[in-house]
């Protein structure tokens, strides 16, 4: 019997697709599937569109089911900001 050590299995990599599906990045602020940019040595990613660090990652199927992302390229339109000058304020009397 030989006393050679048994090699440890290789750790899964985020860059390589696994048997479970490919890994995608989802920006919670943009509400879009994006290409994540790694920040430092930890599992922190930055969104290339809005530059925030509010990015989740997981398999494509898990991200789509958890965040309710449809298969369309435009997942959810961003909420429109209303211009306060267009709306009448409560202080001004209406004619």
Explain how this protein is built.
The chain is 7% helix and 18% strand. The protein has one helix and five strands, in the order βββββα. The strands form two sheets. It has a three-stranded antiparallel β-sheet with strand order 2-1-5. A two-stranded antiparallel ribbon has the order 3-4. The longest helix has 7 residues, at 60-66. The mean pLDDT is 76.
What is the residue-averaged pLDDT?
Answer: 76
Distance between the termini: 98 Å
Strand order of the largest sheet: 2-1-5
Strand content: 15-25%
Largest sheet: 3 strands, antiparallel
Radius of gyration computed on alpha carbons: 22 Å
Structural class: mainly beta
Counted beta strands: 5
Order of helices and strands: EEEEEH
Number of helix segments?
A: 1
What percent of residues adopt helix (DSSP H or I)? under 10%
What is the global morphology? elongated
What are the salient characteristics of this protein?
95 residues; mainly beta; 3-stranded antiparallel beta sheet; two-stranded antiparallel sheet; 1 helix; 5 strands; 18% strand
Short summary of the structure?
The protein is mainly beta. It is 7% helix and 18% strand.
Secondary structure layout plus pairing:
Layout: E1 23-27, E2 32-34, E3 37-38, E4 45-46, E5 55-59, H1 60-66
Antiparallel strand pairs: 1-2, 1-5, 3-4
